[in-house]
Design a protein that fits this description.
There is one protein chain. The chain is mainly alpha-helical. The protein has three domains: 79 residues, no CATH class; 103 residues, Up-down Bundle (V-type ATP synthase subunit C fold), CATH 1.20.1690.10; 108 residues, Up-down Bundle (V-type ATP synthase subunit C fold), CATH 1.20.1690. 72% of the residues lie in helices and 0% in strands. The protein contains 20 helices and no strands. Helix 10 packs antiparallel against helix 11, helix 11 packs antiparallel against helix 12 and helix 12 runs antiparallel to helix 18. The radius of gyration is 25 Å and the shape is globular.
Length: 368
């Protein structure tokens, strides 16, 4: 029979183990969820300031660019507009606003995921580098193609002002883009291959970051987000290639690895209509089917529909994981969608389109 002393020792040891386990579980929960409380609350407040359908409809009634500028003064874009008076200046204001949103997310989110938003900014690095190099190749003023958003804007400006193509190689030295540009300079790859290489670098970094997260929920959310973006990129590349009459093997060279789709059957068909039909059996089939008629005329209709799908999917993830990075991703996607619609609205107003026509074009419930 155990003595009282022995029983007490066993009980103390058991209680110690239990409290240690409870302490560890409590710490894990606090580590996992508490860091999202403040940023999510702040993001929820920011979401309330996104332009409503009614507000966008009111902006569509501006009729002149000057009136539109005045009507934007009661929005958050006012802080980035400065003395903007032209379409180009207003678009740059939108870019600065979006860049500030990415940087804010990097600043307020937990350190273990905040770097993802810095990586997202690198998509504009890729766009800028590709646009500048293309402009240089065509002999056009490259500075006109520089977007004021990204992580290496000063380098991009220097590239645009470079007097020779060789000078650009020096500017890109030490970046991941140095090797593909060197290959381009030596005529070892085409301009299309160069651009594809840039995007492969970008998406590889995104996917590596997403899959390296220790927390299972963060890894799942970021992984699905990145893979869906890769799928969208590959679908649009495929459809544009088919619309241009390119053979499947030529299109394949421009696809980005890491997505979920196998596009072999769609690559081997003869035209755009057949490619759309092949995509009907994929998980994106219902989305593509909903814009099939428009897609036959303009592939961008598929891109818009798929981006809306991604926004919807991330919105669903926020419901499953309310205290997670999904909330920030959802806001970013909504902000990007708002910026795209505002850019279209600005151009349409400047071109003299009627308010009714503008509402119909930018869509989203604005049409009468």
């Amino acid at each position: 029979m155990l003595s009282d002393t022995t029983l007490t020792a066993i009980l103390d040891t058991t209680l110690g183990v239990v409290f240690t386990w409870l302490g560890w579980k409590t710490y894990k929960i606090l580590w996992k969820y508490t860091p999202y409380s403040y940023p999510n609350a702040r993001i929820n407040a920011m979401e309330a300031k996104l332009l409503s359908e009614q507000r966008l409809g009111e902006l569509a009634e501006s009729r002149t660019l000057q009136n539109l500028i005045v009507n934007l003064e009661d929005t958050d874009y006012k802080n980035f507009m400065g003395s903007a008076t032209t379409v180009d200046e207003l678009e740059r204001a939108l870019e600065r606003s979006l860049a500030s949103t990415y940087l804010l997310m990097e600043d307020i989110l937990p350190d273990r995921v905040s770097g993802f938003f810095r990586l997202l900014l690198e998509e504009w690095d890729v766009r800028n580098i590709a646009s500048v190099v293309k402009a240089k190749k065509r002999g056009e003023p490259a500075v006109d193609y520089v977007l004021e958003i990204g992580t290496i804007v000063p380098r991009v400006r220097a590239m645009a002002e470079a007097k020779t193509m060789e000078e650009i190689l020096v500017i890109l030295e030490g970046t991941p883009y140095e090797e593909p540009y060197q290959k381009l300079l030596l005529d070892e790859i085409s301009l299309t291959d160069f651009e594809t290489w840039l995007y492969r670098i970008y998406y590889s970094k995104l996917l590596d970051y997403a899959l390296s997260r220790k927390d299972e929920e963060e890894r799942l959310i970021l992984g699905e987000f990145v893979r869906t973006k890769i799928d969208i990129t590959n679908i649009i590349t495929l459809l544009r290639g088919k619309a241009a009459g390119l053979p499947g093997e030529e299109i394949r060279k421009s696809l980005v690895p890491g997505g979920t789709l196998k596009l072999d059957s769609a690559l081997n068909v003869e035209d755009l209509g057949m490619a759309l039909a092949e995509l009907d059996s994929t998980k994106y089939g219902p989305v593509i089917r909903s814009v099939r008629e428009e897609a036959e005329k303009d592939v961008s209709a598929v891109r818009d529909a798929l981006e809306d799908y991604l926004l919807q999917r991330v919105g669903e993830l926020t419901k499953f994981y309310p205290l997670s990075i999904a909330t920030a991703l959802s806001y970013i996607l909504r902000k990007e969608r708002e910026m795209r619609r505002l850019r279209a609205l600005i151009r349409l107003v400047a071109s003299g389109f009627s308010p009714e026509r503008i509402k119909a074009i930018i869509g989203g419930g604005l049409a009468p």
